[in-house]
Specification:
There is one protein chain. This protein has 160 residues and is an alpha/beta fold. The protein folds into two domains: 59 residues, Double Stranded RNA Binding Domain (2-Layer Sandwich), CATH 3.30.160; 81 residues, Orthogonal Bundle (Arc Repressor Mutant, subunit A), CATH 1.10.10. Strands 3-2-1-4 form a four-stranded mixed beta sheet, with no helix packed on it. Strands 5-6 form a two-stranded parallel sheet. A hairpin with a 4-residue loop joins strand 2 and strand 3. Helix 3 crosses helix 4. It starts with a strand and ends with a helix. 29% of the residues are buried.
Length: 160
């Protein structure tokens, strides 16, 4: 049974999806970007099922939490799983380039594929794909829009 809840943060409305055992999705409802999202009618709204996840997200948004520790259930290819694992090693307030992530997973020429894995990340913020930037330091693609990516990075830099 898939559960969901919605709540507001200083950054945007967020929608958590998962089970009573693990979080499998987080949507940043910014109204921007290219990520299409809809709540499946078969999902059950449950405000209490995600207490720990919601508390950690709220603690992150207030600057009290730098790294998430939640039970996650994410589906993806072996390559995507490797990228998402490497993203979780980027410290709060720091950034890495797509090329640096590609090198970290042992495939230096895969920076474009790293970008595609980022765009398919089902748990942005928790798996911090917003911390990945272009080789020239530019803020390139973010499925939820560059405006929130910029805000998240500025927030993390000032709260280090």
């Amino acid at each position: 049974m898939t559960l969901y809840t919605t709540f507001n943060t200083p950054f945007c409305r967020m929608i958590l999806v998962g089970t009573t055992d693990a979080v499998s999705g987080l949507h940043l409802d910014t109204g921007e970007g290219k990520r299409a999202f809809s709540i499946d009618p078969a999902w059950i709204r449950n405000e209490s099922a995600f207490g720990d996840a919601r508390e950690q997200i709220e603690a992150y948004c207030s600057g009290r939490l730098k790294r998430f520790s939640l039970a996650l259930e994410v589906e993806g290819t072996e390559f995507q799983q490797g990228v998402w694992s490497a993203l979780q090693d980027i410290p709060f307030g720091e950034v890495r380039t797509y090329g640096e992530i590609a090198a970290a997973i042992g495939n230096e020429k895969a920076s474009r594929a790293v970008g595609m894995a980022n765009s398919n990340n089902p748990l942005p913020l928790i798996i911090p794909c917003h911390r990945v930037i272009g080789a020239d330091g530019s803020l390139t693609g973010f499925a939820h829009g560059l405006s929130i990516k910029r805000r998240l990075l500025e927030f993390e830099r000032q709260d280090r």
